[in-house]
Request: fold
Amino acid sequence: MKLSRPVRFIAVALAASVLAGISPLASAAPGVTRRRIKIGVHTSLTGAVPLPADSAQQGATLFWEWLKDRNRPINGRHVDVVIKNDNYNPSQAVAVCKEMVEQDGVFLLSGLISGSNGGNQSMSCARYAASVGVPYVTIGSYKLGVRTLRNYFAVTQPMEEQAPRLADHLVSDLGARREVNGILRFDTPMYARTHDRFLTAMTKRNAEVAYDRAVAHGAGLTEANLVVQEMKVAGVENATMLVSPIFFLQVLQAAKRQGYAPLWNGVGLTMTISDEIVRIGCRNGTIGGARFLSFLPAFAERDRFDPVYDRAMRKIHSNEGGGDAVVWLGWATSKALKDMLELPGRRLTRSRFIRLAQSGKTMRTGILPAVRFTRKDHFAGNSTHVLRASCTDQRWHAIRSFVKDF
Reply:
């Protein structure tokens, strides 16, 4: 039977596609259409350390809604966000990430930081994502469990890599060689790695750590009173904290009762993400003057790093106060993700996204330290902001920015 011309054309096309190893019915990459990119975000809206639901939602979506409002697509596409609650629980994180991939059809997954142990949720979701070839982009908390994942990209340094820089700051700027240094940490593998890097760096700088104490992750007021008593007896002047904000506030409260006011210091985002820690710490503790290293500038200085942020909050959410640091964090990380999404051009597939993200290109948000990934290193950030707690206005302030060496 002789085939009509249209049918012959279709048959030839089908044969060519089979020979090329390409399905003729293959659609665009999951979560990608001609005009849209769908991404999935998980965070803790309930559980042990919940983020304010409105702040988390606004943080995950503000930057993308601003681009839509300005008609500034990414290679012709705008970003839509699905956000789900991981309940501060690793198993729940896997469940919602799986749901976003298999039911909501997102292109990639991302974690919005969710408390001092948020690395567990990120690690669990990232490992699931790796098993199904989905890119995962987040804030860097720890390397444990994700170091070798090809699909995992952290747009900031993990805590353990910030620890040597903190030691340099204490020695170079705060006289740690002449003073008594101490460190308090939770007894978990993730905090232990940061602790070990800090001790090694202090030893290299000839700065002795006279007090070294670990407490259980569930420590409370009883332990806080005990460690403050020990630090006071030991004469600790520089007290490094690798604990949760809740326990740190209990330590501060115990310190005020015992008349103890060292220079509190540390690394990581959880202490500085909220000015509420300074407000409570100034009222009920001795936090004034504390120094913490953070990849995110203080919320109080946001206009200095990105004056567009407040304009976006006014336009998109009719908010004159700028929201809070959770929204500020979401804005900053979305800017980094935008740069990554631009790299593949119009041919946006998961494999191309992963391959080009690790090409070594430097991307700058003006807020976070420079983002640059290579095949061997999927953790970005080679500088830090130094934040100081002020009891004058009860806020964190960035006193130095984008510091590489002290």
Observations:
- DSSP finds 13 helices and 14 strands in the chain.
- The domain at 36-156+302-382 is CATH 3.40.50.2300 (Rossmann fold).
- The first helix runs from residue 5 to 19.
